[in-house]
Amino acid sequence: MDDTLVLLNARAGALIDTGPERVREALASALRKRTNRADIRLVRPAYLKDEIERAARSDVSTLIVGGGDGSVSCAAHVLAGTGKTLGVLPFGTMNLLARDLGLPAKIEEAIEALSDTKPRRIDLARFNGRHFHSLSGLGFFSQMARAREEVRGHKLGRLVGVGIAAIRALHRTSVFSLDIRTETRRERVDALAVLVTNNRFGNDWRRPCLDEGVIEIHIAEDAGALSKLKASANLLTGAWRNDDDTDGIRTITARHVVIGRKRRRTFAATDGELRREYIPLRYDVRPGALTVLSL
User: Which helix (H) or strand (E) holds 52?
Assistant: First the structure.
């Protein structure tokens, strides 16, 4: 690794719990083994995107981002196609990309593991021109992202907060009609949720392959109240992969998909970030678009 810049989300709960100075010292020690120079900065969330864009224009060869999936997604989008290498520290809740890169969940172990990582190229997906590393969801998933923001920091803890968010999301989710087009098919569906993933996810929300060059579209179709409950649970846990009775959840594999509906705009939750997007929604895969540090 040549010159390295480390940007840490200063408001990340995992960073605060561990202690910023303790994290700084551990990072300096781990990076000293393999880099000419390491600059470690704590950045407030409002300025993180600007710092990532500044790093992309600089002569820094490796950018390591400590944050949740949203922060990592921002970095992946900015660094796509630049030739710079992205390192990930799992400071968020799900840490989907960090897990798929083999990084430990505990911060101290993840920092120590940086010295053993090697560069590799992975696919990114693209949504209305913006890259993302893991997944993008409509319907139930966008409602789930909205509800999780409402209960963030719940006094009874994260797991209770997630449960409350799921109940709220389920209550708010209604059936919506979509026109789905891929390179080989076109169909009209009435859905409770649609999940678009970069490459294939397994039943434990892990991807066995990060460079398969495909996207998957998982559709939970309307099938009544009881099926709505089970479909929502299956979508949250990934259980549709090993459940013979999927209750209306089916999967389409493609390289690009266009999703239309009657509305002009709709909410989508992409790598944990809720955004209002213009319709039609256009997804595609960009093979080998990003170089990352992986175990």
Answer: helix 45-57
